[in-house]
Amino acid sequence: MNVKVSVILPSLNVADYIERCLESVIHQSLKELEILCVDAGSADGTKEILDKYADKDPRIKVLYSGKKSYGRQVNMGLDYASGEYAAVLETDDWIDRDMYQCLYKHAAADGLDYVAADFDLVYRLQNGADYFVRQRLFHGDKQDWYGKILEPCQITTLRSSDYVLWKGIYNRKFLKDNHIRLHESPGAAFQDMGFLQQVKTYARKARYVDQSFYRYRQDRENASSKELDGLFYYEKEFHWINEELGLCNIMKGIDKKYYYFTMSISFLTKYDQIIAALNGDWQDQRLAGPYTWFRRQVAEAVNRGILEEDMYGKGWWEKLILLLASQEDYSQRIIEADNEKKQEVQNFLEKIQNRPVIIFGCGKRGERLMFFCDRNHICMEGFCDNNSELYGKERFGFPVISPMDLKNKISDKNYVVLLSMRNGAEAVYRQLTAMGIKEDRILNQLPEGV
Fold first, then answer.
1. How many whole angstroms separate alpha carbon 122 and alpha carbon 134?
2. Which long-range contacts (C-beta less than 8 Å, at least 24 apart) are formed by 145-150?
3. Which residues neighbour 320 within 8 Å (Cβ) at sequence distance 6 or greater?
4. Prediction pTM value
5. How far is CA 36 from the centre of its chain?
6. How many CA atoms lie within 13 A of 42 on its CB side?
7. Residues whose CB falls within 8 Å of the CB of residue 433, separated by 6 or more in sequence, listed in order
8. Which of 8, 68, 214, 350 has its CA 20 to 30 A from that of 408?
């Protein structure tokens, strides 16, 4: 068989997820696959599941890594791979059946160095339904970048926003010719960064498809992205890129600007996440240690004019300068803002008073409000909408009812109606009160960000 895509599946103790992952790849519409499962010493039954599938499908090869390193596992897969293109599929996730068929078609047609698509964050709701949130790469005036062949000057600007390797496929000859590998650091944290910075440095032709194929599971408690050592891992990854790969010595002009921009954004976002989890303890070594390294790197880039204010969105430059100036002041600001958000949510929950809710509006804001209710353990009974075509149907396992049915439910039980829409909320409020629903049963002031 002429292998078109070699799919590398690094695993470690994912017995609860591995079968769904494997099923999604063996049933791909593109059949010319090589499926390389690289296990790092699982002790929960994962290995036995891999062996079972390998016995049934000759495309599956099971390899074993003596080192518990995501980077080592992927590199082993790349060494073994024979396909024209290579892909990585994380074994607690799964993919749409047409992912590799679609990406390979684009890649082969134009001889691209890599092709990628969007992906979905997947949350498991309390009722057992999956909630998908598409992560679009391009917005606004860049939406027309979807489908185009992008050149180096465009590719490099995506260093910070295209931050995961598993949503694409990569020309194996391109990777080999440019000696592109992953950092074989311990664990499974952020080795994507070094790989993708190399890809963005050397790629000459790439495309992004305006579709979403990859399902990225969010509710796994021991996911590496949630670790409080995240800033330390980022420091090690960027240090490897700078010192061992020497990539900074290769980069010039716009490449160097967007590389340091990526470093600064990684610094800010991970710092915010960890300081909130540490309740403002900025002296904790999980922050204080890597802060010193990042501050030196980023401050030098600012002083040399590599990083400039117009590269950043609203508020980000101000945040960066404050963090570089004072770790303590920055941390206090983040915690104050976090506490304000928490208080806003608490005030909203007090208005609900533990009553079951029905969400009016089945659009995107209605979905986000449903997710907010789920995360905050608010008892949700269903959706209501003025669109009669939705009546009797379900959304995420919840029934959609008419306003008249809503009135009957409200009269029978102590329900609260949450108005999800940004535009038209006042009109719906008047509609419901005219039907006899009391004002204290309707909430249309939602927490910021819902």
1. 9
2. 145/208, 146/208, 146/209, 146/210, 147/207, 147/208, 147/209, 147/210, 148/207, 149/110, 149/112, 149/205, 149/206, 149/207, 150/205, 150/206, 150/207, 150/208
3. 264, 268, 298, 302, 307, 312
4. 0.93
5. 24
6. 25
7. 439, 442
8. 350
